[in-house]
Amino acid sequence: MATSIKIDDALKSRVRQLAESRRRSSHWIMREAIEQYVEREEKHEAFKQEALQAWTAYRETGGHLTGQETNDWLTTWGSDDERPAPECHE
Asked: Would you say the pTM of this structure is higher than 0.85?
């Protein structure tokens, strides 16, 4: 599926200069930029959806950890005494 986009001359010039300095085509630079943007936005959307699901679960169950419980658990990461995640409570 071929798609075309219109960009102004200033941006076109910037892309061309970057492509030359990277020894790539302008097409490659634009495709790479779009791919990175889409991946970043997909990750952002997934994070947002996960947060909304966590908020919904909290409202339904009241299950949570305190900041101190979380901190105590995280400080064990990477140590010989690494502990599993604590259980949520009301």
From this structure: no
